[in-house]
TrEMBL record:
Name listed for the protein in its UniProt record: LEUCINE-RICH REPEAT RECEPTOR PROTEIN KINASE EMS1-LIKE
Transcription is among the record's keywords: no
Organism: Salix purpurea (Purple osier willow)
Location in or out of the cell: Membrane
Record membrane topology: Single-pass type I membrane protein
Any GO molecular function: kinase activity
Length: 315
């Protein structure tokens, strides 16, 4: 028997009622609304700066709220949360609804003014792959709890401070303890964190724990030199930033062993010795910054003259 299409369309509501089967699409319906609203209610933020939080609750399905993404599989679980640039100035503590979002993989709280130490409950977010707390206003010691986030691929705790001292520090735990279980890390951005460690210590801490590192950014970290040869174990390194640390050491020849290096930034590092010519032979190198330092006489004696004349003359 052939039933015309329009008849089927007509029958659908009756079939649903009588079969008891719910045909309403549940896939993608948010299941994390309660912790999200708890989070919003606990945060203090500037309504005029906020573009995301102010618009939460605008639609019934919280997967559609700004700054939120749910799992593709339709589980209704929040996997990404971006609250960057929201004018948040407080209200995050260890019991925040944020830490009940157990399926979270990407979290960006950058550029806010939390003005509080990092809560230990970050350790609850064990599925995190990327954590961006850059210029989020967190202060004090970075807690050991961050080292429990063993799936992290990208970690950004950087601060640009101009006045006043560094906001975050790594003393107890130190850098070695922070990274010891973070073997998946590909990006480590710690600019402006007071790490204040000696050359062989911080170099060995990184080289022994982070075999997949591609981006290492530690400008303004109160690091001292010299650079330790163990760093060559970071074979995938592509971006290496150490500007504004008092290395007071030569640029080591082994930097030429990074076959994927694209950017080497060593401005304001009090470098001495002779700059190794072999670094210019890295075929992938695009950016080399050695600005702002008193180089000793002969520093560039190993450098081919065409390399030095590649910049257009100032003025
Ligand atoms: C963190 O996880 C623990 C153990 O799973 C749980 O008891 C606690 O409630 C969680 N914290 C928050 C703030 O959700
Ligand atoms: C973190 O967020 C800031 C902006 O809020 C961005 O500039 C930076 O690139 C992000 N970090 C990473 C590792 O993507
Ligand atoms: C937030 O951080 C993530 C990863 O760190 C980055 O990919 C994203 O672009 C950032 N968002 C903004 C608005 O900067
Ligand atoms: C950095 O940390 C070290 C060790 O904790 C401390 O002695 C030093 O005063 C700190 N530097 C600044 C600028 O805060
Ligand atoms: C760098 O490469 C050169 C040439 O392959 C090798 O002799 C040297 O031992 C390497 N240095 C380090 C620190 O691995
Ligand atoms: C850099 O460190 C060296 C050796 O510790 C020290 O003698 C020098 O004064 C420092 N320079 C600056 C600018 O802090």
């Amino acid at each position: 028997m052939k039933i015309p299409l329009f008849t089927w369309i007509f029958l659908i509501p009756f079939l649903t009622i009588f079969s008891g089967v719910n045909v309403v699409l549940v896939s993608g319906q948010c299941r994390d609304q309660r912790p999200l609203l708890e989070l919003k209610n606990s945060l203090t933020f500037d309504n005029s700066a906020s573009t995301k939080l102010v618009n939460w609750n605008s639609t019934p399905n919280c997967c559609e709220w700004p700054g939120i993404a749910c799992d593709d599989g339709g589980s209704g679980r929040v996997i990404s949360l971006d609250l960057s640039f929201e004018g948040i100035n407080g209200g995050l503590d260890h019991s925040s609804g944020l830490f009940s979002l157990q399926f979270l993989q990407n979290l960006n709280l950058s550029v806010n003014s939390f003005n509080t130490p990092l809560p230990a409950s970050f350790a609850n977010l064990t599925d995190l792959i990327s954590l961006n707390l850059s210029n989020a206003g967190f202060i004090g010691q970075i807690p050991n709890d961050i080292s429990k986030l063993t799936k992290l691929v990208s970690l950004d705790l950087s601060t640009n401070y101009f006045l006043g001292g560094p906001a975050l520090k790594l003393e107890k735990p130190n850098l070695a303890t922070l990274v010891q279980n973070l073997a998946q890390l590909e990006e480590l951005i710690l600019d402006g964190v007071n790490i204040s460690a000696q050359g062989s210590d911080w170099c060995k801490a990184l080289s022994s724990s982070l075999p997949n590192l591609k981006v290492l950014s530690m400008s303004n970290c109160f690091l001292s030199g010299p650079l330790d040869a163990s760093l060559t174990e970071l074979r995938s390194l592509s971006i290496f930033r150490l500007s504004s640390n008092n290395l007071s050491a030569p640029v080591p020849e082994f930097l030429a062993n990074y076959s994927k290096l694209t950017s080497l930034e060593l401005s304001s590092c009090q470098l001495n010795g002779i700059f190794p010519q072999t670094v210019f032979q890295i075929p992938t190198l695009e950016i080399l910054d050695l600005s702002y330092q008193q180089t000793p006489s002969g520093f560039f004696s190993g450098v081919p003259s065409e390399s030095l004349s590649s910049d257009p003359p100032a003025q």
